[in-house]
Structure formats: structure tokens, C-alpha cells
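User: Predict the structure for this protein chain, please.
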Amino acid sequence: MKDFSDSATIDSRFGLIFAIAINVMINCCTRSRLFVLMWFSIALSEGATSFAATTDLWTNSASGLWGTALNWSSNQAPNSILNLILITNANSKTVTVDAATPSTNLTIQSLTLSAPSGSTNTLALVDLTTNVPLQASGVLIVDRGGLLISTNSAINSAGAVIDHGGAIRLTNSILKETSFAFFDVVNGSVLLDSGIINCGANQAVRLGRTNNSPANLILNGGSMVASDVQIGSSTGSKGVLTIAGGNLNTTNLLTLGSGVNSTGIVSITSGQLTATNNFTYVGKSGFGQMTIDGGSSTFAFLSVGNNANGVLSVNGGQLTVRPRTTNDWTQIGDIGVGQFNMSGGTALLMSELHIGDDSSGFGTGSGVASIMGGQLIATNDITAIGRYSLGAMTVSNATVWLTNVSVGRHDGSVGTLNVQSNAQLYLLDALSIARFSNSVGHVFVTGGLLSLTKDNIWVGREGTGDMTISGGTVQAVSALVAISTVVTDSVSMAVITNIRAAR
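Assistant: Here is the predicted structure, written as C-alpha cells:
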């Protein structure tokens, strides 16, 4: 039985009635007080009747069919006239919506599914075709003790909240969001085994909205479409996205560690993750971690350690960065500390690669790339190891193809390149150690191969650079030490040309 005190709407309605009645009674004679008491009783009755007429509560303590009127407090199955459908009473049970359910009972306003401590209320959708889905014009709430299982079925809602361990499980089913609301997995879980989750109409999918326990979104198959995806979206929260099959297509921003001091984690073992229409942040205002063990992941702009710390690990599968314009790049360490670890798989970066890209002046950012296996290909544009801040790359037991490389590029930057055992590092263009004025660059070759068969190694091109070879093999057209490409006017000392294009 529903306790009216749980409803803020009913509380305020009855509270107003009660306050008016007391005020009148204080200022009335005895006969008038009797009249007021009668009026107050009628008002309470009307309020309760109004609540009963707009809310349908499951009252059966056992399992049963959604479409059976006697299971509900209003003695009618859910329909579009009733404001709120509640499956919240005690005892574990399953409420089943099947193909025999009349279509008039499949269109509702809002639905709340939960259970008291120690109980689980399950709403099972079975064989509801996409032509006749369970359709809620309001928000779907799956709270503590609530479980929604959909098999060969479809459900639509205008926003969703999964909280306090509530859960949704979808098999060969469709869940479609129909409004510019939020799809919030506060600290519950959503599992897609097969089928479709379409959140394209939502403002954002937000995983992790509290610091109590993590929120989980798991894709074992099927496909999901979303606009913004925020993983760890609130202060101190934790969100986890696991892609073990199927695919997720993010049509706008993808942010790991969105909230301050939050944690956003993405794990990809199979399937596809695509975010090619906007930025992807691994560590925005909170910590971000992305691990790629298999499948394929494609981005337009990838920033690891943007405004907080972030870690990107590639152990298998393929990572691709496909820029939309020259303003899209791969960034390891901006204002935060970024770390790129690679032990297997393939990373194909068609953009510039910036390692240590903090130009803020705060001095907080740095970037480290440890390429210990697999293949890294970034031959379309410049690689800057220490672009504006501290940056380092170590290559060992891996094959790397780069084009024009600066180790320490701009004023105030410090870059370090380590070439170690079993490394094969091929450069298609020049290697500049300390490219521009006031930059610092260090290169250490202790093993493996560093090959520039078509261009030069510049040691201290315009900044302060050094190169130490204690093992391995270095191949280059030539090595130029403390030779600048800058030519200045003899009178004004202004730069007028370079010996070759200053890249």
C-alpha cells in the first residue's frame, strides 16, 4: 500500500488544506468549527481520490501480468490517462508485459520500478514487437531493487534514470529515447546483449552521478547511438563503459572524467567505439582511463590528460585518429598529465601527434608515450615530443613510423626520445632535436634502429639539443650539430628566410 507521505505533491496539497482549516478553526465559533472539520474531511477525501485516479500502483504481492486490472490499485491496467505507474511494493516478483497485452495498456506517462530492501521487482518485456512498444511519454525510473528485462521487445521513454543499483537488461530489443532529456545511469547498470539503444535525441548519456558506487554501461553486442557521453559526470563519481562486442557511436563529445575529481573508465575488448564528430577527452576535469585490448576505436580529436590526468593503453585491436581538419590532433598531456602505453595492436594516427602540449603557463601538464609493442603509424603530419611542455617517448620491442619529428619544439619545452632494444623507428622526414629557440631536446639510442634514410638529424637546430648513441643503429642522410636553418637580415636581424621549410 502506498504511503502518501512519500509523495511531495500529495504532502503539499494536504499541507495547504490542513493549514487553511486550522487557521479558520482558530477564528471560528464552535458551530463553524464543526463545519470546517466537515469541509476538511471532504477535501482530504477529494485529494486522496485525485491521487488514486492519477496513479496506478501494483498491489499484488506475487508475480502476474501487466494487463490484468485486478493487480493494480485503480482496478485498471496502465494506460495513457494515468500519470504515474508504480511497481514498488514488497516481495520479489515479476510483472510480465507480453504480446497479448492490449495496445491501450502499452501507452503510459511515467513508470517507476523499485522495491524495498531485500526484494526485487522485475518488469519483463517479452515479445513486444517494435510496432507496438511499451511507450512512456515521461521518464523511466529504475531504482533500488528494480530490474527491467527486455527480450525480443521495444520500449520508448522521454528520459531515463537508473539509480541505487537498479538495472536494465536488453536482449534482441530496442530502447529508444524520444526527448532532449538525459539518459542517466546514476549508480546502476545497463547491459545490452543484442539489439539497439538509441539515445540520439537525448541531451547526454551520463554514467556516474554520485560518489556512492559506480555506474556501468556494458555492450556485449548490438549497437548504441548517443550524442554527448559523459563517463564520471558528477563531482567524485565513477562511471565505467565496457565494450565487449557491438558498437557505440557517439555523435558529439565523449568525455572520461567529466566531473571534478571523478573517474571515467572505458574498456574495449571487442566491437567498435566511434567518436568522429567532436572531441574525445580522457581526463577532462577528473581522471580518465581508456584501455583498448581488441576491436576498433576511431576518434577525430583525442586528448589524454586534457585538464586532469589521463591514461590511454593499447594492448590489442586498432586505435585510429582521423582528423576532420588540421585543428584536430592526438594530444598526450595538456594541462593534465597524459600517458600513452602501447604493448600490442595498431595505432594509426592521421593527425599531428603532440606529447607534452601544455601552453597554459601553469606548468602542470606533461606527456609520456611508452611504445613497448605493436605498431604506431603517424606519418601524415608532425610529431612533437615536448611541444610546449615536458614530453617523452620511449620505443622498445615495437615498430614506429613517423614523419617530421621535433624533440623539444617550442619555447620552454623539453623533449626526450629513447630508442631501446628491438625498437624499429622509421622517420620519413627530419628529426629536429630542440627545434625552435629556447627549446630543449634529448635523444638516447641504446638499442634497436633509428632510421632517416631520406633526411637529416638536426642536433640543436635552434634550441639546445643533444644526442647520445650507446648501442643500436642510427641511419640518416646527415647529422647537423648546432646549425640553424634561420637566416636573418644583416641590418635589422629580422628573419627573412629559412634554408628549407621550417617544419
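The longest strand covers residues 263-282.
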